[in-house]
Amino acid sequence: MADNSSDNFKEFHSYMGMLQNLDVGLVVLDREYRIQLWNNFMESHSGLHPYEVREKNLFETFPEINEEWFRHKAECVFQLNTRAFTTWEQRPYLFKFKNYRPITGSAEFMYQNITIIPLDSSVGVVERIGIIVYDVTDVAVNRIELKAVNDELKRLSRTDRLTGLYNRGYWQECAEREFKRAQRSGSPISLLMFDIDHFKRVNDEFGHPAGDAAIKNTADQLVMNMRETDIAGRYGGEEYTMLLVDTSAENAKVFADRLREHIASSTVHYQDASFQYTVSMGIAELNDDIKNVDEWIDAADHALYESKEGGRNTVSIFKKS
């Protein structure tokens, strides 16, 4: 009596022979994950001839394959007699082949979509599985590049070009979110506002480009001193604003004084000019009397005004009247 399973596989092998030159990879594995079929696509991209891989264990031959992950995928195909899929977004590749396409030369490796199909015997038992490997590098690279462009456009729409800080509009959106979050959680949060002292004098004496250099230097000092959780923005002109999350007014003042001293000790160099300058700061911790973000900003701005009136180069905390 003929072995139907063997006959079926021979028929499948013959069919695969007609598909050798298709631009997809075709691999057949037995129940022990030994390679039974290896088409031209796989040979071309791996550099391994079919006789070199036949009857070899897949995971020993290609150690870059995550065995636990692939076995989980494949066992579903073996046991449930159903197909399984994975896309490059979920996992960039199954076989780490180099990318040789000139159009997508920026990609180091071939991005792949994978289909795993059951190859059942005449009695319905899945004895082998087929792996179809699709080269989707062009699609993946184009989508990645498009995402990078969109991400950059999104970033540019949120940031101030001169300083790299959040612009006023996006910072205001962040402030609205943090205001609501703090109201729900009851966690302390403080708003810091500050600006450059006698900024008009800087522009008049050294010129507007030097003033821009001072604005940029202030932002750089701010970025160097802030925490990852802090949210800083350029509020307008030479004025800056910052949300210090989970921070009381007293602790915010410790940060503000340190930042103020860093700025005062820094020197701006522009062309032949070198100069130093100071900043004045105001802090308002969120409390139950503040009903919205505009009132919160007004409170911090009032504290900033007190610092200006008090002689500048200082930090003031808003106190309820």
UniProtKB/TrEMBL annotation:
PROSITE patterns: GGDEF. Its EC number is 2.7.7.65. It comes from Catenovulum agarivorans DS-2. Pfam families: GGDEF, PAS_4. Gene3D superfamilies: 3.30.70.270, PAS domain. GO terms for molecular function: diguanylate cyclase activity. Residues 187-320 form the GGDEF domain. NCBIfam families: GGDEF, sensory_box. It is an enzyme of class 2 (transferase). This is diguanylate cyclase. GO terms for cellular component: plasma membrane.
